[in-house]
Write a structure and sequence with these properties.
Blueprint lengths: L2 H31 L3 H70 L2 H23 L2 E3 L12 E7 L10 E6 L2 E3 L2 E4 L1 E6 L1
Parallel strand pairs: 2-6
Antiparallel strand pairs: 1-4, 3-6, 4-5
C-alpha cells in the first residue's frame, strides 16, 4: 500500500473514533437527565410493592378490629342476657332456703319432693352459668375491694377481725371471665 492509502486509512479511522466519543458523551449526558427504562420499571415496581404492603397491613388491621368488635358485641350480649338471670338465681336460692326451713318443720313427702326438684333446677342453672364463664364470688372473710364489692352496711369489727373485712353478703356477686358482672353487696367491718 502506498503512503497515500495509509494516510487515507488513518484519516478515515480518526473520524470514526471522534464519532464514537461524541455518541458516548451524548449517552452519558442523557443518563442523568432521563432514567433508563429499567430504572423506571424498578421505581414503578417499588411503588406498587409499597402500595401492596400498605393495603395488606390495612386489611390485617381491619380484620383485627372486626374480630375485637365481634368479641365485644358477644360479651355485651352475654352480659345483657346473664344479668337478669342472676335475679332468677337469687330467687331460686331464697326459695330453697325457705323450703329448707319449712321442710324441717313439716316433713311431708310432697313438700320434700318439690324441694328436691327445685334444688335440681337450681344446680342445673348454676352449672349452665358456669359453662358460660359466669362464676359466683366468694367474698365473706376477704378484704373489701371496691372493684368487686358494694358496701351497703358497716358493723363494728368483731374480736380478731381486721377493719375492712367483709363480714356478710346481702347479695351475691358474679364474674364473667375476669370481669365483674355484678358487684357483691356486702357488710363490712369498721
Amino acid at each position: 500500500m502506498s503512503t497515500k492509502a495509509r494516510d487515507h486509512t488513518a484519516v478515515d479511522e480518526e473520524p470514526l473514533a471522534a464519532d464514537t466519543e461524541v455518541s458516548t458523551e451524548q449517552k452519558s449526558d442523557e443518563s442523568p437527565e432521563q432514567p433508563s427504562e429499567l430504572e423506571v420499571l424498578r421505581q414503578e415496581y417499588a411503588a406498587l410493592e409499597d402500595r401492596f404492603l400498605r393495603q395488606a397491613a390495612d386489611f390485617q388491621n381491619f380484620r383485627r378490629r372486626a374480630f375485637e368488635d365481634r368479641a365485644l358485641a358477644l360479651d355485651a350480649g352475654r352480659n345483657q342476657i346473664a344479668l337478669p338471670m342472676l335475679d332468677v338465681l337469687d330467687d331460686l336460692r331464697r326459695s330453697l332456703e325457705a323450703a329448707g326451713t319449712a321442710s324441717s318443720d313439716d316433713g311431708s313427702k310432697p313438700f320434700s319432693t318439690l324441694h328436691n326438684g327445685v334444688k335440681l333446677v337450681y344446680e342445673k342453672f348454676v352449672s349452665e352459668l358456669d359453662r358460660l364463664g359466669i362464676r359466683e364470688m366468694n367474698v365473706v372473710g376477704a378484704q373489701f375491694d371496691e372493684a368487686l364489692h358494694e358496701a351497703i352496711l358497716q358493723q363494728p369489727a368483731p374480736e380478731g377481725v381486721a377493719p375492712g373485712t367483709v363480714l356478710g353478703e346481702v347479695q351475691k356477686g358474679y364474674t364473667i371471665g375476669d370481669r365483674v358482672l355484678r358487684h357483691a353487696r356486702v357488710v363490712v367491718a369498721s
